[in-house]
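Cont'd.
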Amino acid sequence: MSGPAAGSALVEARGVVKRFGGLTAVHRLDLTLREGEILGLIGPNGAGKTTLFNLLSGQFAPDSGEILLEGREIHHLPSHRICRLGLARTFQVPRPFLAMTAFESILVGAQFGRRLPGTSASDTADRCVALTRLEPRRNAPVHSLNLAERKRLDLARALATRPRVLLVDEVAAGLNPTEVRETVGILREVHASGIGIIYVEHVMEAVMDISHRVHVLDHGATIAIGTPDEVTRDPAVIEAYLGRSAGS
Amino acid sequence: MSSFARRQVLLGVGALGGLALLAPLLLANPYSSRLAQLLFLNVLLASAWNLVGGFAGQISFGNASLFGVGAYATSMLWLAGFHPFFTMPAAAVLAALYGVAWGWPCLRLRGPYFAIATIGVAEATRIVANHIEAAGGASGLTLPLEEDLGPVLLYALGAVLAVAAVLVSAAVRRSRLGLGLIALREDAQAAAASGVNVARQQVTVFAITAALTGLAGGYYAVFTLYVVPEKVFGFDLSISLVLMVLVGGIGTVMGPVLGAGIYLFLEQFVLASLADIHLAAFGALLIFIILLEPRGAAPRVAQFVRLIRRRAG
């Protein structure tokens, strides 16, 4: 499919299904990330958010359905190819390269990610160090970084691959309010630089604050899509999070 | 030329110069020149093993399969009339091809699964080699003693090969390939998500490992003049490489060099009297060293060198 309608979608998942044995983790899911958008992705534990990220980033192949990045099919590609086409991710629990310094880890993304002519890998890495406020820790061994720093390092490594789309998995979880504000600020800057973001988060003040639209999952299927205000008022969403009220 | 390349060349020339100065001492008698040959051989083998074992974190117990291919390539081409030194490139290329042929599928496995697969491949190779009559079967090949292949020439060849292996190792460590290898060693999934082609990086470095190991096999054939499957494809050889690198310092450039020296010293002077059980004794020693110094000798030596420098400066 081509044309202006398809062109405005950065990422499009159509009818995606993923089963693990008898469990259907993602069931006939449609999801769209538009150009210039921050899409919040929320849902109770086990709703399939991380599985969806693993599908989008090529860690798993879907059992059926298709995934498009800027109109191009990517669901049959391995992770490194998807990364080089411009889709990068962070991990729910940061996955640092412990034997490296912070800068070296970020350099991995810069050297192996999407190639853009006229930019050196180390310049790109340094820009990402600055963007994620890691300058004081630039040459520190990764094993000495604390949780908040490791989360920003994950983010920096992903950004160093020069993505068009960034998948952010619970970057605010476990952080104190100051760190959450700082992280949200970084995501705003990332978005301002023209990168589309899909943002999985349990910390509602963070995700509701910066998302243009919110996509709500439960049991691997969509239960609501809308602006942050719309979904927080949606009865299906309230029920999924809090259960049915005793009176009704 | 970049400053790193210039430094590499200087270090290489310096190392070869130092070895040339030591030559009269090491070539004093047949035993000492044999020790020098074995040291060069061990440095070459351990550095090669460390590229995939240390940098990529894929522990191979099957490098003898590559060593044997190199040893037989050199031997058979030599017997077919080629000058032994000119058979070296063939030993490297054939070992690299064999390494890629089995490394490609096996490197999809990680950790202990890869290690077990390498044992299987190497043992199968040894058994097959025992049955190839064209290559002398189980009784192997005896090579001609040639006057012009004297100890000086063998010393020079060994020195060049060993120094080259260390320089290759340093270059890989600093390269894009090296960065990708350490990334995939630390976390293969995160490396792939950062754009690292895990399979290709591993096969590439394994081809380099295999080529250097094949060269070592060729060198071995040239100075021992006797090649037999039980020795050159033997499991003992594969194990000894793992031991050398673990003792010296895995994942470092100088660790395999230190480990090669320590191993040779123990094998020749300390454990020789224990004859057949020397590998068992070495294993016990290894456990002892790993308990005391799990990262091997290299970090401790580096620390010592820094201390000396600070005192001197």
